[in-house]
């Protein structure tokens, strides 16, 4: 006599809130790490990351890179995720709005008096945020719709 057994797959369940927190914090960490790498390349290329604003000389790296990578992204992703509890469609809207704002604010970098290497590196940092925003919010959306 032959007995056949089939294994039933077990679903790994995680809490939706945990998925959302991981997406937000993971996105922020990924953006900071990626932008620090871009900063290092820009510094190696001769970028000083120094600008003058209102007569004051400001060095924006590496502390400014960390702060300006983490804080706006943390706020934006958190707001989108919190609103997604009421309306999941906000995640796609937030991905588009966040991406557009990230690219649009390159104009502020270009308008400043950074040297060329710093301007290019800082501009690339804005572009780096786009896939981070999209991937983080899409991950949240997929975890919601997978339930």
From TrEMBL:
<feature type="transmembrane region" description="Helical">
    <location>
        <begin position="21"/>
        <end position="45"/>
    </location>
</feature>
<keyword id="KW-0812">Transmembrane</keyword>
<keyword id="KW-0472">Membrane</keyword>
<feature type="transmembrane region" description="Helical">
    <location>
        <begin position="117"/>
        <end position="137"/>
    </location>
</feature>
<dbReference type="Pfam" id="PF19545">
    <property type="entry name" value="DUF6069"/>
</dbReference>
<keyword id="KW-1133">Transmembrane helix</keyword>
<feature type="transmembrane region" description="Helical">
    <location>
        <begin position="65"/>
        <end position="86"/>
    </location>
</feature>
<protein>
    <recommendedName>
        <fullName>ABC transporter permease</fullName>
    </recommendedName>
</protein>
<feature type="transmembrane region" description="Helical">
    <location>
        <begin position="93"/>
        <end position="111"/>
    </location>
</feature>
<dbReference type="InterPro" id="IPR045713">
    <property type="entry name" value="DUF6069"/>
</dbReference>
